[in-house]
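Long-time lurker, first post. I've been practising inverse folding by hand and with some scripts of my own, and I keep getting stuck on stretches where the structure tokens seem ambiguous. Below is the full token string for one chain I'm working on. Before anyone asks, I'm not after the true native sequence, just a reasonable design that respects the backbone. If someone could post their per-position residues I'd love to compare against what I wrote down in my notebook.
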């Protein structure tokens, strides 16, 4: 039997639905999703295993045209590195969007001789937010930008054209033995998903700069038969942000804890005991060694 395997990178602007797509394709909540841009900060793999193939998808941070702080620059370097080892690239944008990723990234991909598909996401919005002609206009726009590439409208949320896309990817996958053991669905350790689930709730609960100035590190994760004990540090950039994060009498932090426990319990199907430490890591987004420590 022929076995196929390869790396498929999902790239695109912030908030277009990259993480929603990887979760829909893999059928697991590999990546966190919020309605705020720049939710995903670190590349995460989502792996689909079938007897005759292994598809390794990468969800990447949204492309930032002009990175402001070091963390954003490091995120962009990471995407470029990832593209170097991709076998297939899915460029994703959304219906009604008439601007796209920087030329820099565009050049960086088209230099290579690998298959690229352009996906126009969120087409379930037709008839609700947009008229059908908006889709035609978006296709027209993408076609001008990427004249040689195949364009496929999808809805990651409603699984529109999912099977078609999967078949297409399967046909493009190179022949190769599996890169990962066939039981793996991701490359990240359990602590990573805890950090991400807490971060997702921070994006939901807090406004303005708080989500963007926060990092979560799980320092302790011990799994017993039916309970997992977890201790996570939440880092903010300034002393004043600590107060906002905690809230009056700790009420917001407590809400964050309850929401996170619920998500982690659902994810690991075990009871969770969770402890938070809120700490200040001064201007970590601008500091190389601090960012390295946070896994960038
Ligand atoms: N209507 C609709 N909404 C979608 C679809 N896909 C994603 N969304 C919504 O778009 C928002 C952003 O989705 P994400 O999957 O987090 O987008 P992303 O590209 O990973 O965002 P970053 O990680 O911030 O770059 C969320 O509110 C999703 O629910 C879709 O097919 N239809
Ligand atoms: Mg994302």
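-- Answer (accepted) --
I ran through it position by position. Result:
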């Amino acid at each position: 039997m022929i076995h196929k395997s390869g790396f498929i990178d999902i790239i695109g602007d912030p908030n277009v639905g990259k993480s929603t797509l990887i979760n829909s394709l893999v059928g697991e909540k590999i990546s966190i999703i919020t309605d705020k841009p720049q939710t995903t900060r670190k590349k995460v793999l989502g792996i689909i295993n079938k007897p005759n193939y292994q598809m390794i998808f990468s969800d990447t941070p949204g492309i930032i045209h002009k990175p402001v702080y070091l963390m954003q620059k490091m995120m962009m370097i990471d995407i470029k590195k990832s593209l170097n080892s991709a076998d297939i690239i899915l460029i994703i944008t959304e219906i009604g969007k008439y601007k796209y990723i920087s030329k820099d990234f565009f050049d960086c991909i088209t230099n290579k001789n690998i298959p690229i598909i352009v996906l126009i996401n969120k087409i379930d919005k037709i008839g609700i937010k947009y008229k059908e002609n908006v889709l035609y206009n978006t296709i027209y726009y993408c076609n001008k930008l990427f004249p040689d590439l195949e364009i496929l409208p999808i809805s990651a949320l409603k699984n529109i054209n999912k099977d078609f896309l999967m078949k297409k990817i399967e046909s493009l996958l190179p022949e190769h033995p599996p890169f990962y053991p066939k039981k793996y669905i991701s490359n990240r350790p359990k602590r990573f998903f805890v950090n991400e689930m807490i971060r997702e709730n921070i994006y939901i609960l807090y406004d303005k700069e708080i989500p963007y100035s926060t990092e979560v590190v799980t320092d302790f994760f011990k799994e017993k038969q039916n309970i997992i004990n977890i201790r996570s540090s939440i880092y903010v950039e300034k002393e004043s942000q600590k107060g906002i994060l905690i809230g009056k009498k700790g009420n917001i932090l407590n809400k964050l804890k309850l929401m996170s426990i619920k998500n982690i319990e659902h994810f690991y199907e075990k009871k969770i005991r969770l402890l938070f430490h809120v700490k200040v890591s001064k201007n970590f987004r601008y500091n190389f060694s601090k960012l390295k420590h946070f896994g960038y």
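A couple of notes from the structure itself: Strands lie at 4-12, 44-50, 53-59, 88-94, 116-121, 150-153, 215-223, 227-236, 271-280. The pocket of guanosine-5'-triphosphate (ligand 1) is lined by residues 14-20, 33-35, 37-40, 61-62, 121-122, 124-125, 155-157 (CB under 6 Å). Happy to go over any region you disagree with.
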